[in-house]
Amino acid sequence: MQNFRKPVVPIALFILAFTVASMLLPHLSLRDGAPPRRFEVPVYPDQGKDAFFVSSGSEELSHIALYHDIGASIKYARQADVLLFGNSRQQLGLREAEIVARARSLGLKVYTIATGHADKTRFALELIRRHDLRPRVVVASGGPFLFTE
CB count, 10 Å around CB of 74? Predict the structure, then answer.
């Protein structure tokens, strides 16, 4: 116990513990059965000029892509006759193949600015204002809490 009376030993132990913890903790998961939360963007084949990828595991990238107009995200939103927005319910429930094909047969362009998580109308309205989007029709989907703040 004599060694702990010298200030050098506790400081050295703290530095050692801090260094080991800062190297190990980012690789450990604190959630049961979940992988460590590391941001890695997987490689997916190009889906063509009409699509862009906005999800990477547990990370939601659509907010960033839409808000900052990354890629062609807002270019196609500006061309849309029908603009869809909502939360993850719309993202998961939207049958893109049917809706886009039907709209195309009617001469309409459809685009979705639905974002994951529990987003409400505020983010979509900010996108519409920020990027001066002027669709003919706006369709909101996401459940009753979509319009409560």
Answer: 21
Cα(37)–Cα(28) distance, rounded to whole angstroms? 9
Integer Cα distance of 144 and 138 in angstroms: 17
pTM of the model: 0.57
pLDDT, tens digit, 9 for 90 and up, residues 96-134? 788 888 999 999 999 888 887 766 788 888 899 999 999
Q: Provide the 8-state DSSP code for 44.
A: -
3-state secondary structure of 110: strand
Domains of the chain: 60-147 (3.40.50)
Amino acid at 139: V
pLDDT, position 118: 63
Question: What three-state secondary structure class fits 134?
Answer: coil
